[in-house]
């Protein structure tokens, strides 16, 4: 099967990145959200990204204009999925919400469609059970920022057909990504480790073991991580991190109990870069404000 048209559902941190890479890779791409404001912000964000890439000569002007010719936005999921080959769901990590979105896709999409979820933790078998075609559903887990991170984790559910995995791998490769196939287990490989490290860093911050800057510096320079766990949390979104931890706590037990300080930050609306404040503070352009 040849994939030509891709629909990305959710225009947040991940959806906009996936749509950018998808349109850049010549897929006719439609980004869908329930919020016009999010779609507008996503487009502005993608334009800025492309401008920077053109200025740095990582992208030609022609590639940039093709990208935006291939990219569309919509608030009408029902209409868009009728005309698509491949859906990537990237709405928040809440099972009820994913269920509702997958049911809608299932109701209106053509028979041949592949339904991939960018979930960080949730079982693709469970996600597949929300549709009448679990053989065409799997997790396709991208990383943030999508245009820079090379990996896609592919996780198949109990009923996922080998052909579905094959098509997802081909789409990921056309987007310039490397893939790994992971057995279904909560948090797969990467989210499980990342959530554990990120949560532990929050416990340390709460306990006053060191300042946020020093925790991040220690992990970067001492353990050779490219980013500190707290700055990574701000990039991921602290609400997203908390949702992942809640799911892992529920499925894998006590060792994933979210740090109370993380819960407090989320309650206070300190969600990270996307709200301008998380562990650190950011300008409107997303630059970190030094303390
Ligand atoms: N943030 C990360 O670093 C990261 C990395 C890998 C995977 N993920 C996963 O990607 C998914 C999305 O995370 P995110 O960080 O982009 O979330 P986000 O909160 O930044 O964005 C979610 C978007 O979905 C939209 N939305 C909500 N309900 C919708 C609906 N019914 N239909 C269409 N759009 C809807 C929201 O308006 C918002 O724009 C989650 O499953 C998350 O676990 C996140």
From TrEMBL:
The record marks 141 as: Important for catalytic activity. It holds the Pfam family 3HCDH_N. InterPro entries: 3-OHacyl-CoA_DH, 3-OHacyl-CoA_DH_NAD-bd, 3HC_DH_C, 6-PGluconate_DH-like_C_sf, 6PGD_dom2, NAD(P)-bd_dom_sf. Signal peptide: none annotated. Keywords: NAD, Oxidoreductase. It comes from the Bacteria. GO terms for molecular function: NAD+ binding; oxidoreductase activity, acting on the CH-OH group of donors, NAD or NADP as acceptor. Residues 187-282 form the 3-hydroxyacyl-CoA dehydrogenase C-terminal domain. Pathway: Lipid metabolism; butanoate metabolism. Residues 6-184 form the 3-hydroxyacyl-CoA dehydrogenase NAD binding domain. NAD(+) binds at residues 10-15, 33, 93, 98, 120, 144, 274. GO terms for biological process: fatty acid metabolic process. Belongs to the 3-hydroxyacyl-CoA dehydrogenase family. This is 3-hydroxybutyryl-CoA dehydrogenase.
